[in-house]
Amino acid sequence: MPSPSDDHAYPTHWEADVVLRDGGTAQIRPITPDDAQRLVSFYERVSDESKYYRFFAPYPRLSDRDVHRFTHHDYVDRVGLAATVGGEFIATVRYDRIDEDGLPAHLSSSSSQGAPADEAEVAFLVQDAHQGRGVASALLEHIAAVARERGIRRFAAEVLPANTKMIKVFTDAGYTQKRSFDDGVVRLEFDLEPTDASLAVMRAREQRAEARSVQRLLTPGSVAVIGTGRAPGGVGRTVLRNLLDGGFTGRVHAVNHAFPEDWTRLEPDGVPAHRSLREVEGPVDLAVVAVPAAQVPDVVADCGEHGVQGLVVLSAGYAESGPEGRDRQRDLVRRARTYGMRVIGPNAFGIINTAEGVRLNASLSPRLPVPGRIGLFTQSGAIGIALLSGLHRRGAGLTRPTCTEGMTGLAGLAGLAGIAGIAGISTFVSTGNRADVSGNDLLQYWFEDPQTDVALMYLESIGNPRKFTRLARRTAAVKPVVVVKGARHSGSAPTGHAVPTTRIPDATVSHLLRQAGVLRVDTVTQLADVGVLLASQPLPEGPRVAILGNSDSLGLLTYDACLTEGLLPLPPRDLTTDAAPEDFHRALTGALGDDECDAIVVTVIPSVGDARAADLAAAVRTAAAEAPGRGAGKPVAVVHLEIPGLAEALAGFGDPAPPPGAEPPAEPRTEPPAGTRRIPAYPAAERAVRALAEAVRYARWRRESGEPGRVPEYDDIDEAGAAADIEVLLAPREGAPQRNIPPPDAPAVGTGIELSAADTQRLLARYGVSVLPALPAPDPDTAVRAAGRLGYPVALKPTAPHLRHRTDLGGVRLELGGEPELRRAYAELTAHLGPAEELGLVVQRMAPRGVDTVVRAAIDPGAGAVLSFGLAGAPSELLGDTAHRLVPATDRDAAELIRSIRTAPLLFGWRGSKPVDTAALEELLLRVSRLVDDHPEVVAVDLEPVVVAQQGLSVLGASARLAPPPVRTDLGPRHLPAY
Q: What's the average model confidence in pLDDT over 277-304?
């Protein structure tokens, strides 16, 4: 731990790990007095030209006074940050607060007489060997965040005109700037408040850097397997064998400190053998680590010293094994990042890249899948095995035969191996404990990977839900993202995953993923089903489905499945059991040309005359391929029952089975015949229809995402007034008892200040939300006077927490038209439910009749602000019929929100009732969304009930909670998750 400065405690929270432009990592931290020698060594490695650009004059070495000045900071007016790799400085940045005359603030008399100056001068120095890696841009983001925290709102920088690289760092940052030129120096001034442009720049840099870091892992030129056994078997030797069998195009090294000293090659594998990584001549890009956990720290150090770019740690014994293992896992990540390396694992299954120029199988999978368009990410090795195996059986990732399998191996795979799949694998990553590289990193990579058309993900935890939904939305706009979420009901992260916990229910997570365009499915089987369809078929233009086949019963099952999934099936067309392949070809051609359908499901049972599976498959594939115009854009899926070889033949690579007694072909076909189209096959109607329904939903989201709606402006919103109210309410009051206000980095949910009814109504009124007045009624006489003020008819109800909104207990009396009825109701309630002082009875004027709803907004520490809507009472509380959207909600979000609950028909005139004013309801949702988005201190708002009538609505109850705003990690400088 660095020692603190003379003036203020060392700000540990400024430490961060960042990914640089080339995919390597660096650590950013405050500079301390202990860094004096590091600073001198760093400066000695900087070129004379860079020194000249920094100091505007020849400056060959730092004086003792310089070293003291650059290493001693008060962390308020004077701050210095360093970027380090391997513990050594590669770049520095510092700011000095200045007054209005440009003098250092700590020496200025004017700043001590009033408010601190809000401007600082900033300067960088980057070691020449690391220029062009984006180090200065990352440092600028972090020093700007530090400055904002210390009350600085503007930076000024003086740069020589020839220092174009540094000028570009400032001008490309996206901040609001002003440039001037005086006395041969360019002066740049820019505000530090984040703008849409600066956030866009930061996120674009983040995407490029994180994508590049994954690319470096997946495209190594050389791989070392550390922990390769001397004899066949064992994890290390297995991975080495898989690398060789897969045809890896780069160099492979076997490393084991137990190898005999005279070994130079490992036989029979024929690869160079080394006792240490230091013995390897030339670079090693990727190290696969398969040694006991206790030996991993030394391996990481060797890799870092050798310049390895990334690690795949297969070793177990980390966080999944308990607290000591969790400490080892933290140490692993810290050590690796110190050397600029990223880590997959520990406890990982490995990585695969099927690209022809790479052919990397650095995993425990015995075979390299056929190249295809599916990217696959799992946090579980067991699930990774299941998915690869399932896609293999489905014809979606069938493997090449290894050099040792020959035709015997092909026959042993039941006729599937050697047949390329309908939608093979592009990349596969199984991260185990996901201590470093996560699903977010893979989304960054897949977003612009030309080899990947569909992203499939098995997730057991989402470490940064806000970032995940942002990245998933961006990726889903160009290619499908399909997710199955494990550990949905455990309430905690799986063993081994060190991630923040989230309190939002699993159903809410589903809604938020859907809002981001993610297709969430329930099982690994569904993940493969949906992935195969999306990777092989065009997106449907609508929900209308034509069904044709040779079984009336199977057609009806498909028809029912379509209705269950919300599709619009046309009446099934029965071709009869005598249908020949040409009948299927003719019927499918007609359906593809029919403007009344958007997709086709073909159903097949075994009794198809004497036709072979290959002939039937050829008829279906050819009809799909020959469809003109709009027909070519319709997806086709086949449901078949026990027809051997049909799925493989539909994949487009199956050769017709030879007649009995004929010789099998010398070589299996490796490319589909010209003029055909690959068609996915499913063994059950429900599976095919579920996959098709997900494609329909995704296609609709893609169309609508082009017009995401807008966040409306309302002239009557008083944002400044609300901010002033919140500041007063959160301010500590002299003599008042200490309130439960959490620190800024604490979760906001469940903590903070519960506002009084009056304060809640005043805050909501600032945003145009009025709450129907309710007057306290501590006794019958007061209740009568209150009713007289409000006007009859009135309602009498309790406000005690255990009775609030509990109409089922008879605690609410409505339509009380006069004093006698009110007194009688008062007596009945107090007799039935308890004394008046315990009930907290209030009198409220009756609202127009309508549908009772509930509107809520709350902040989750991981997901951010979430807007929720449902019908009040049993539908939302018992059945969980509630819909959710991330804040800020657009007008489209609000409209979808009220229509997405199952009980929505009650709002639109169900069973002859009159439709209610949904436009007023949408406006209310948008106003609440604006409130919590504009003021992050508002951590919870609850409006219940909201009675929506035919004209207008009435908010009958409201509560709100305030807390200091939680930290917005998505708005700060980019960094890797802290460990």
A: 95
Q: Enumerate residues 6+ apart whose C-beta is below 8 A from 279.
A: none
C-alpha 721/C-alpha 709 separation (Å) is: 27
Identify the pLDDT of residue 911. 83
Residue in the structure block whose two tokens are 């922990």 = 227
- Comparing 539 with 746, the larger pLDDT belongs to 539
Query: Which pLDDT value is given to residue 743?
Result: 40
Give the Cα separation of 438 and 213 in Å (integer). 12
Token digits of residue 456:
């499939």
What pLDDT, on a 0 to 100 scale, did the predictor assign at position 395? 52
- For 487-544, write each residue's pLDDT tens digit: 665 555 556 555 555 566 777 788 888 889 999 999 999 999 999 999 999 999 999 9
Structure tokens at 513: 């993923």
User: Can you spell out the DSSP letters for 676-735?
Assistant: -----EESSHHHHHHHHHHHHHHHHHHHHHTS-------TT--HHHHHHHHHHHHSPPTT
* CA distance linking residue 182 with residue 159, whole number of Å: 11
Measured CA distances, 7 to 2, 76, 80, 82, 825 (Å): 14, 9, 14, 19, 68
Q: What is the mean pLDDT of the chain?
A: 86
Burial 689-719 (b: 16+ CB within 10 A, else e): bbbbbbbbbbbebbeeeeeeeebeeeeebee
Angle between helices 465-476 and 439-447 (to 10 degrees): 20
Q: Is the dihedral of CA 682, 684, 686, 687 positive or negative?
A: negative
Phi and psi angles of residue 577, each rounded to the nearest 5 degrees, phi first: -70, -10
Dihedral of the CA atoms 719, 725, 726, 729 (nearest 10)? -170
Pick the closest to residue 369 from 404, 402, 329 (CA basis).
Answer: 402
Q: What's the pLDDT at 461?
A: 76
Task: Give the whole-angstrom CA distance, residue 256 versus residue 230.
Answer: 8
Residue type, 326: R
CA-CA distance, 208 to 214, in Å (whole number)? 10
* CA proximity to 650, closest of 668, 662, 641, 638: 638
Q: Measured between alpha carbons, how far is 205 from 227 in angstroms, rounded to an integer?
A: 36
Higher pLDDT, 408 or 813: 813
Contacts of 89 (CB under 8 A, 6+ apart): 35, 38, 39, 41, 42, 82, 83, 127
* Cα gap 743→753, rounded to integer Å: 13
Closest CA to 749 of 931, 941, 887: 941
Q: Which two three-digit tokens encode residue 860?
A: 């989750």
The one-character DSSP state at 779 is S
- The side-by-side arrangement of strands in the sheet containing 794-797 is 774-776, 842-845, 794-797, 813-816
Q: Which residues contact 758 (CB under 8 A, 6 or more apart)?
A: none
Closest Cα partner for 922 from 687, 763, 653, 709? 709
**Cα 55 from Cα 149, distance rounded (Å):** 28
Say how far apart CA 382 and CA 390 lie, in whole Å: 12
Q: Is 791 left (phi over 0), alpha (psi -120 to 50) or beta?
A: left
Q: Which two tokens stand for residue 257?
A: 């400190």
Report the C-alpha gap between 229 and 224 in whole angstroms. 13
Residue type, 362: A
Q: Which residue's entry shows tokens 């109210």?
A: 725
Helix or strand holding residue 91 (H, E)? strand 88-98
Write the Ramachandran bin of 25: left for phi over 0, alpha for psi from -120 to 50, otherwise beta.
beta
> Residue 133 corresponds to which tokens in the numbers above?
């890696």
Listed in sequence order, the residues at least 6 apart from 97 whose beta carbon sits closer than 8 Å to its beta carbon are 76, 77, 78, 104, 105, 106, 111, 116, 117, 119, 120, 150, 152
CA-to-CA distance for 903 and 464, rounded, in angstroms?
A: 32
pLDDT classification of 219: cutoffs 50, 70, 90 = very high
Please determine, for residue 323, whether its predicted confidence score (pLDDT) is greater than 70. yes
